[in-house]
């Protein structure tokens, strides 16, 4: 089974693209665990919450992997939690880093900041320069991962088409 991760700054269409790709490929997708966790937390989150979020994300991933056949779409991975932790707290819990090292993926789809910002109480970095900073951080991650990756830009239809082309290429290469 191939695992595709959609990664990128806040409010760049990751969840929308995840759902669209899952529908297109008739497969499952792994939602972002952090959103549900934070919506029910009842207090401001703390750094220790990030480990719980990481563990919950991997549990969701494992549950969905059991349902997937040839392809699974992940609406995030633990690299996002690492970036989030480093931005807010200046470091990342070594246990999260161990969890990152324990997982393997097959491709990253990096979402660009050309989707309009949508206000949301859980989002923290609306300024264009902040969004570009985080895009570049995620770009460094995908470039250094040594995996195939695609830069996903444009309107929603263009993003979906670019992502499908990249995934089809990955799947085609797997059959040869």
Plain-language structure description:
- The protein is of the alpha/beta class and 176 residues long.
- It has a single domain, classed as Rossmann fold, CATH 3.40.50.300.
- Helices cover 55% and strands 12% of the residues.
- The chain contains 7 helices and 5 strands, in the order βαβααβααβαβα.
- A 5-stranded parallel β-sheet has the order 2-3-1-4-5, sandwiched between helices.
- Helix 1 crosses helix 7, helix 3 packs antiparallel against helix 4 and helix 4 packs antiparallel against helix 5.
- It is globular and about 45 Å long.
- The model has no long low-confidence stretch (mean pLDDT 93).
List its traits:
176 residues; Rossmann fold; 5 strands
Task: Reconstruct the topology from this structure.
Blueprint: E1 2-7, H1 14-25, E2 28-30, H2 33-39, H3 47-65, E3 71-74, H4 78-89, H5 94-102, E4 107-111, H6 128-145, E5 149-152, H7 156-175
Parallel strand pairs: 1-3, 1-4, 2-3, 4-5
Helix pairs in contact: 1-7, 3-4, 4-5
């Amino acid at each position: 089974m191939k695992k595709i991760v959609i990664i990128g700054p806040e409010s760049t269409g990751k969840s929308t693209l995840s759902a669209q790709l899952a529908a297109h490929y008739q497969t499952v997708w792994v939602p972002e665990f952090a959103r549900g966790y934070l919506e029910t937390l009842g207090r401001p989150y703390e750094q220790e919450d990030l480990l719980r979020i990481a563990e919950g994300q991997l549990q969701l991933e494992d549950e969905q992997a059991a349902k997937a056949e040839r392809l699974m779409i992940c609406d995030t991975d633990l690299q996002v939690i690492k970036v989030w932790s480093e931005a807010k707290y200046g470091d990342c819990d070594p246990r999260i880093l161990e969890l990152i090292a324990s997982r393997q993926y097959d491709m990253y789809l990096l979402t660009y900041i050309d989707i309009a910002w949508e206000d949301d109480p859980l989002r923290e970095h609306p300024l264009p320069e902040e969004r570009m900073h985080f895009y570049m951080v995620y770009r460094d991650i995908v470039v250094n991962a040594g995996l195939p990756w695609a830069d996903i830009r444009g309107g929603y239809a263009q993003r979906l088409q670019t992502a499908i082309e990249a995934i089809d290429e990955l799947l085609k290469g797997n059959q040869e």
